[in-house]
Amino acid sequence: MSAESTASRGVPKENRFKVWRQTRPFWAGLFTMIGGVPIAYLPYGDMRLGNMTLAMQTTAGAGALIIGVLLITLGLTMWFQPHVRTFAGVAAIVLALVSIPVSNFGGLVVGFLFALVGGGMSVAWAPAGPLAQETSDVRAEEQPVAEPAEHHMHDGTTQPVIPHQGSEPQVAETTTEANGGRNSAG
Fold first, then answer.
1. What is the pLDDT of residue 90?
2. 21: how many CB neighbours lie within 10 A of its CB?
3. CA dist list (Å): 112 to 17, 74, 106, 107, 120
4. pTM score over 0.90
5. Can you tell me the distance from the alpha carbon of 8 to that of 11, in angstroms, rounded to the nearest whole number?
6. Which residues of 83-114 are buried (b: 16+ CB within 10 A; e: fewer)?
7. Tens digits of per-residue pLDDT, 138-167?
8. Secondary structure of residue 8 in the 3-state scheme
9. CA dist., res. 162 & res. 24, Å (int)
10. DSSP labels for 27-70?
């Protein structure tokens, strides 16, 4: 699957981003990438307070950089490969949890929370079903129920038609119609 989704080919240019965004876990990827930035930056960054420099560097700076870069990569994966969203979401949650001891409490808790929420959103996201299937379900609900067949007798009365045991079995369209709604294992 490429970045140019097949769903957006027939859409006007002003709506393409909206269609692209709705066909993938966009917000989950964005939150995961936002969470990766403070986790990767804070062990290497420094703050200046007047003439004093406050360095946040730790010995685990390389681990924090790897976790931050992986979270950004997982966020991009959620955007451009939405079929692996569950793996990317679980990996983002695990990396967010690992960032607590490795990267200054997960990027001062901000990066941890963004990555955790983004991973959870990615696991929970499900693609929308096709529109054609929804309209066919509505049409199936609107169809009237067939009346039972009746046999007209010569004297003007009617009797319900009862299938004979020796007749051919009728093929049902749905599972509930088959075999009186009972399931069979063979």
1. 96
2. 14
3. 28, 14, 5, 6, 12
4. no
5. 5
6. eebeebbebbbebbebbeebbbebbeebbbeb
7. 555 665 555 556 666 677 777 666 666 655
8. helix
9. 53
10. HHHHHHHHHHHHHHHTTT-EEEETTEEEE---TTHHHHHHHHHH
Each residue's pLDDT tens digit, 88-103: 999 999 999 998 888 8
Q: Which helix (H) or strand (E) holds 159?
A: strand 158-160
Calculate the average pLDDT of the chain: 77
Q: Which residue has the tokens 């969203």?
A: 85
Radius of gyration of the chain (CA): 30
Residue 75 has pLDDT above 80, yes or no: yes
The one-letter code for the residue type at 31 is: F
Mean pLDDT of 103-120: 89
Rounded to an integer, what distance in angstroms lies between the CA atom of residue 76 and that of residue 47?
A: 29
